[in-house]
Design goal:
about 350 residues, 2 domains, two-stranded antiparallel sheet, two-stranded antiparallel ribbon
Length: about 350
């Protein structure tokens, strides 16, 4: 039955468009679109990115894979076509999602990839089209699109079609403002169900947390929850944080005034804002120092200590760690009063100074 449906030409495209329409209608009925703070440039980038991805980038990558495959390995074209569908699908979808996990994670840990992924986190509200909000080059380099094209070349077109449909259902659902999982957290009788579900697929609470502005918000974990369809990889590699609520604020800590053209076409188009990472003259600098910084802390209040050494609000985090493997340290003051905080970033008692800087 499923394979017969997948034989319909462009069935995956029809389903994806249907999923988007489904969520757009529900968000409209719920009043989310009416109350949206999105600007014109946001809509242009997100809608254009969706159409360019589906009508230019993916077909181009498939074309290149088939050309290369026919030239170098013509005997392997459709070589896996006789394999059982369930086996092809399982191999495709798990490999695809693993590729996406590591690509997404590396996009948060390396400067260049971060600048291509930054548009995704610049969005200050969630929504179904935020799923497609990345720089053009980010998608051209995305390994799982090349993997999908390779599987199609090898004869797994049906597996890819079904995988794409299921992936988009989960991805768009986890970005939507509808928060379909909220009901499960509100009622005790339903919580065991969502506890199982969220350990299999990505839920809105899990992914919204990734889009939260700062870890000072207990529902936000912008340096974790990298999963695309399955939360399995976050659990295996220690980056999973399961939530029962949603961030109070979305977007980046550092607000910049960037045109959508710079956001989408970087590095080919730069931003005129000197504070933006897309500006040609922008450069992160080391703001650490070989001295402790004294600050008056308030008992019970949470603070975010800078670990990367590049914050302009030392010793506290301002989001400059994005694009590196550093992660700010969240701590709660145990008493009110003056405290010496480490600014050499080498203390063994972070965030507090232990005089390690005196030996530097």
């Amino acid at each position: 039955m499923i394979e017969e449906i997948l034989n319909i030409e462009n069935i995956d495209i029809y389903f994806v468009i249907g999923i988007i329409l489904f969520f757009s209608i529900l968000e409209s009925i719920s009043g989310f679109l009416k109350n949206s703070n999105r600007k014109k440039g946001d809509w242009i980038q997100e809608i254009m990115s969706f159409f360019v991805l589906g009508n230019l980038i993916k077909p181009l990558i498939v074309f290149l894979i088939f050309k290369a495959g026919d030239f170098y390995f013509p005997e392997y074209r459709f070589a896996l076509g006789s394999y059982p569908f369930i086996i092809l699908f399982s191999i495709y979808i798990l490999t695809d999602d693993l590729f996406q996990y590591w690509y997404h994670r590396r996009a948060h840990e390396t400067p260049f990839l971060w600048k291509l992924h930054r548009p995704h986190h610049q969005a200050e509200e969630m929504g179904y089209f935020v799923s497609y909000r990345n720089a053009l080059l980010y998608y051209l380099l995305m390994p799982n699109i090349w993997w999908a094209a390779l599987v199609v070349f090898l004869g797994g077109a049906k597996a890819v079609a079904l995988g794409l449909i299921l992936k988009q259902l989960v991805i768009i659902g986890s970005h939507s403002r509808l928060k379909w999982d909220k009901l499960f957290y509100e009622y005790a009788a339903l919580r065991p169900i969502i506890k199982v579900v969220e350990r299999i697929i990505i839920t809105p609470a899990f992914h919204h947390s990734h889009h939260g502005t700062s870890r000072l918000d207990s529902a936000s974990e912008p340096n974790g929850n990298f999963g695309n369809m399955f939360s399995l990889w976050d659990q295996i590699f220690g980056t999973a944080t399961f939530q029962k609520s949603y961030p109070k604020e979305y977007g980046l800590q550092q607000k910049t005034n960037d045109p959508w053209t710079a956001s989408y076409f970087y590095p080919f188009v730069k931003s005129p804002d000197p504070k933006s990472e897309w500006n040609s003259g922008f450069k992160k600098t080391d703001t650490s120092s070989l001295e402790a910084l004294s600050f008056s802390l308030t008992k019970g209040k949470n603070y975010l200590w800078c670990a990367c050494g590049m914050s302009n609000k030392q010793p506290f985090c301002d989001g400059s760690h994005h694009g590196s493997k550093f992660k700010p340290h969240k701590f709660t003051a145990k008493r009110t009063g003056e405290m010496k905080l480490c600014n050499c970033k080498k203390s063994n008692q972070t965030p507090f100074c232990d005089n390690t800087h005196l030996n530097q």
